[in-house]
Amino acid sequence: MANTLRTLLSKVTRPAKPRPPRQIPVPRRTRHLEYSPNLDGDADPGEIVWTWVPYEDDPAQGKDRPVLVVGRNGYRLLGLMLSSQADRDGQRNWIALGPGGWDREARPSWIRLDRVLQVDERGIRREGAILDQLLFDRVAAKLRADYGWR
């Protein structure tokens, strides 16, 4: 009798085998481009601002970088990071911007298209410059053609 009771209790108290998470397909979030710069102290689409950007391989570390604001996602800004490293020239997912007012040393810059940063407006350290609309349009055309932006 004790063995029967133990067997029944073990079936009742044994944890159920966890089910794998249910996968529900959802449409990819479409990102909308916007160009509306206004050097008013707030970060706006079309402006290059400086903010903290975490390293991809170690998000606990990073550095202040120039970032082109290309749109918004609610209260967050959508941005693309810039680099002054000349080896970016000709690399996939990078476009040359040339020098601009965002870099005090007037070094040429490249913008990375395949890593979108969501930046809290309070994390903006300073406004750098307004990106020329022709350059912004070139970046926007590439984002629309290759990355599904609108």
Automatic annotation (TrEMBL):
Pfam families for the chain: PemK_toxin
Region named Disordered: 1-25
Keywords for the protein's UniProt record, in alphabetical order: Toxin-antitoxin system
Family membership: Belongs to the PemK/MazF family.
GO molecular function: DNA binding
Lineage: Bacteria, Bacillati, Actinomycetota, Actinomycetes, Micromonosporales
Protein name, per record: PemK-like, MazF-like toxin of type II toxin-antitoxin system
Entry annotated with the keyword 4Fe-4S: no
